[in-house]
């Protein structure tokens, strides 16, 4: 934990006690004591920002990262300007995505001792991650997959076509989705917009690409938009 060593060093250099650092940062003494004792391996971004301000240093200096501009430092700078509501929204998304990635990484494709097979529907026509194509419910076939928590929760699978969801998803990936007619804002889903199928992130009034080279697709009042399902993972290649 280099960041923890740096915090302790800066705290010592400035002759701060745990109590005084708690008062300066606004972090409760109990939370601060746990962090300094090494009991908190993954502190909240808001906690680290409060500590950097209290210690009078930048996040890069406190964390021991490079002084060169990075995406992380740019996002941290923007985060520092948000109000409480904005930070709660960012924390919610980060925690949700962290849990999803952790779940996907820990899920085993199958048990070597007792592999279980199940069959799920695969749409023969890909859901576009670029321009839309029609996704017909009748144009599908069944594929066999190994049973695990992700595939067991999936109701159907669909291929990705295009590159607008890169770098996370690539052309040809097979997505796993649970059938639902709605997803929450910020979640990934398979949508039909005026008869064309899209794999996008739901933005409330728009469908969003992860690839910044693509513009959002605005949903107008007269559009026929439907949700096929929520994307919960993908098949490993």
List the helices and strands and how they pair.
Layout: H1 2-13, H2 18-25, H3 29-36, H4 45-55, H5 59-63, H6 71-81, H7 84-106, E1 117-128, E2 140-146, H8 149-153, E3 156-161, E4 174-179, E5 188-193, E6 196-202, E7 206-208, E8 217-218, E9 225-234
Can you characterise this structure?
- With about 240 residues, the chain is α+β, with helices and mostly antiparallel strands.
- It contains eight helices and nine strands.
- It has helices at about 1-15, 20-25, 30-35, 45-55, 60-65, 70-80, 85-105, 150-155; strands at about 115-130, 140-145, 155-160, 175-180, 190-195, 195-200, 205-210, 215-220, 225-235.
- The chain has a nine-stranded mixed sheet.
- The radius of gyration is 23 Å and the shape is elongated.
- The protein starts with a helix and ends with a strand.
- Residues about 110-115 and about 130-135 have low confidence and may be disordered.
